[in-house]
Fold this protein.
Amino acid sequence: MIERLKRYWTIIRRPSVHFSLGFLTLGGFIGGIIFWGAFNTAMEITNTEKFCTGCHEMRDNVFAELKTTIHYTNRSGVRAICSDCHVPHDWTDKMARKMQASKEVWGKIFGTISTQEKFRDKRLELAQHEWARFKANDSLECRNCHNYESMDFTRQSVRAQNMHSTYLANKEKTCIDCHKGIAHQLPHIPPGKAPTDTPGQIVPKEGDEALAPPPAPGTAAPGAPRTGG
């Protein structure tokens, strides 16, 4: 057994002595394809709605809220899943986000948001992280689906027309400035603890009608804020 292991080790250390260059090149090419295919498949699995909602922390909290919104059920049947909004589409940024998200495994292990009470306590902090990320990339994940150039202002409310044709057009605001709470309920912000407005940012306040969308037809999130346009 030991001799066999030594022989295998010798082959691994000096493969060119035992195999031709063509064989090694072909083997490396095939191995690379298999590795890349497996890696890419694993990445795509982690982007699925089934994977994202596989734990009760997500399934019983934010996903339950998402199902009451127009991003989940709407007249056109186009649904946004978790990764559409929370994972960059560009490959490099996606890999960086995946590595950053690996620390969430520790949160799962130690039960950081394992109960609804813990989730509510951390909710504002978690939301602010995402708001800051959207603000920093000019709401890129929103714009992957919603194109300003393709907007038909005649089919929007007067208020929406004004906001889009002025603040969005001149880049004074970005989507997340006005649409916090678009897919999940706004977190509770204790009186006196709301962050200070900064240029180009709108700070949400619980019950603020300017920040959240109307619920999907026939549904309503209990206590969730809504807007008229």
Residues 196-229 have pLDDT under 50 and may be disordered. The CA atoms of residues 124 and 187 lie 5 Å apart. Residues 55-229 form one domain.
